[in-house]
């Protein structure tokens, strides 16, 4: 369990508060979206979790232990972070060396190191890129290399900042499939995203940040239910959710596949 305990944050003394007295728990195996308007503080939350920023007040806990003062390099033993522009986190001349860097710093050598790197490349479908120069790869490939780097360190938490922005449908689908398989292995996935299709289809939990606080924390179907107004937080409804509401009984349809299946079933029952 990774936790914010009454965290308040501002970038500098005379700057406005970004996050105010916020407590949050990130449990094992969850698939969490952090969303909200531009500038609401989503990336800041991930930087506080990874240790790239330190709370102005409050604490960050890992398995109940205070890790507030731990640097990002120390937290990388259990948190992997995929930057919005992953080329900024690649330093080595080849993908293989890039992925080996973390476990090497953890003291892994020889066959053990090779095995970890090969396994991480297999899992992320980056084996064919092993000898490529990471900084010239496409953003999608760089993301998978950054994910492989985290897996090679046996990460427990994987945080991705806007991973699907600017990606085509196929790339998006491949990435989300990979995230799903990692979640099934018990890795906690935390995504910063504006993409409500991903929130509705893939996430088990969604956290909305507004006015320096957690405005909503719950299941996607709750966020998009009639008792909430996600549009007040600048969020759009997924088309499948809106279409589902028009069907008899207004079923919640998390994606278009689910809408089509429900539609066909209702038609078969003569309800349409
Ligand atoms: N390094 C920094 N120094 C000062 N202020 C910053 C810094 N980084 C971000 N901010 C400010 O902190 C606030 C929160 O920024 P943050 O990037 O966390 O928001 P966000 O919700 O991720 O935004 P976006 O959706 O546009 O990526 C914004 O007002 C932003 O201008």
User: What is the assigned CATH homologous superfamily of the largest domain?
Assistant: P-loop containing nucleotide triphosphate hydrolases
Helix count equals 10
**Biggest sheet strand line-up:** 6-7-8-3-9-10
Number of strands: 10
Cofactors, ions and other ligands in the entry: adenosine-5'-triphosphate
Which structural class matches the secondary elements? alpha/beta
Q: Roughly how many Å is the radius of gyration? A: 20 Å
- Oligomerization state: single chain
Number of domains: 2
Distance between the termini: 46 Å
Helical coverage, percent range: 25-40%
Q: Biggest β-sheet: count, sense, barrel?
A: 6 strands, mixed
Poorly predicted sequence stretches spanning 5 or more consecutive residues:
none
Average of the residue pLDDT scores: 95
Order of helices and strands: EEEHEEHEHHHEHEHEEHHH
Strand coverage percent = 15-25%
The CATH level-2 architecture of the largest domain is identified as 3-Layer(aba) Sandwich
Secondary structure: elements and pairs:
Elements: E1 2-10, E2 17-26, E3 31-36, H1 42-50, E4 57-62, E5 65-66, H2 72-75, E6 79-82, H3 95-105, H4 110-124, H5 139-151, E7 157-161, H6 169-184, E8 188-192, H7 196-202, E9 205-210, E10 213-218, H8 220-223, H9 239-245, H10 256-268
The protein binds adenosine-5'-triphosphate.
Protein model, in words:
Helix content is 36%, strand content 22%. The strands form two sheets. It has a six-stranded mixed beta sheet, sandwiched between helices. The protein has a four-stranded antiparallel beta sheet with strand order 2-1-4-5, with helices on one face. The longest helix has 16 residues. Adenosine-5'-triphosphate binds next to helix 1. Keywords: ATP-binding, Cell membrane, Membrane, Nucleotide-binding, Translocase, Transport. Its main location: membrane. This is ABC transporter ATP-binding protein. One of its GO terms (molecular function) is ATPase-coupled transmembrane transporter activity.
